[in-house]
Amino acid sequence: MADINDLKLYRKLYKKRKELKEKVSDLEEQMGEVEKQVLDYMVDNGISALNIEDNNIYIHRQLWASVPKSAEESDWEKLRNHPKFGRLIQNSINTHSLSSMLREERKNLEIDESIEDYLKSQGLDDVVSVYERESVRVRKSN
After folding, report:
1. Domain check: are 73 and 107 in the same one?
2. Residue 128 confidence (pLDDT) above 80
3. Same-domain check for residues 136 and 83
4. How many domains does the chain have?
5. 36 and 86 both lie in a single domain
6. 73 and 120, same domain (yes or no)
7. Which residue from 129, 126, 118, 120 is spatially nearest to 74, judged by alpha carbons?
8. pLDDT digits (tens, 9 = 90+) for 77-88
9. 33-38 — which CB contacts under 8 Å span 24+ positions?
10. Mean pLDDT score across all residues of the chain
11. Looking at the structure, do residues 66 and 41 belong to the same domain, yes or no?
12. Given a cut of 80, is residue 72 above it in pLDDT?
């Protein structure tokens, strides 16, 4: 059965969690500021991954796709009628599913074909926009 001490402990834990969240938020902000510089350095120097002490720092690339908010009904219809992408369309599109599907499609492309070329060949280049989000990640080295 809970008592006043449990309430005090809960309050103490709540305050500690709040402090830690603020510290994490500050750290994420600092990392965001440094990440762009690290990405530029790695790209400029042709580094895709680097072991530093017990961590492997590497460039992670992930394709994301969406349909612009300015898309018209004819654009949506074009997607609805597409044999691969049509199943994603309801009253809106699940951008995570669309992005995932395009990542899979990219694996099947010829080396010199871009995802933009693929979308153009499918008649969807004016309906779907793609971009790659780059981030630096760290994992434990072997």
Report:
1. yes
2. yes
3. yes
4. 2
5. no
6. yes
7. 126
8. 898 899 988 888
9. 35/135, 35/136, 38/136
10. 90
11. no
12. yes
What whole-number distance in Å separates Cα of residue 81 and Cα of residue 68? 18
Three-state SS for the chain is CCCHHHHHHHHHHHHHHHHHHHHHHHHHHHHHHHHHHHHHHHHHCCCCEEEECCEEEEEEEEEEEECCCCCCHHHHHHHHCCCCCHHHECCCECHHHHHHHHHHHHHCCCCCCCHHHHHHHCCCCCCCEEEEEEEEEEEECC
Residue 74 CB partners (closer than 8 Å, separation 6+): none
Write the CB contacts of 117 (distance below 8 Å, at least 6 apart in sequence). 109
Please give the Cα distance from 23 to 29 (Å, whole number): 10
Residues 71 and 42 in one domain: no
For residues 27-50, give the mean pLDDT. Answer: 95
Asked if residue 120 and residue 74 are part of one domain, the reply reads: yes
Residue 134 and residue 80 in one domain: yes
Kindly tell me if the per-residue pLDDT of 42 is higher than 90. yes
Structural domain span for residue 123:
55-140
Instruction: Read off the tokens for 6.
Output: 């449990």
Phi, psi (5° rounding) for residue 10?
-60, -45
Residue of 62, 64, 61 whose CA lies nearest to 99: 64
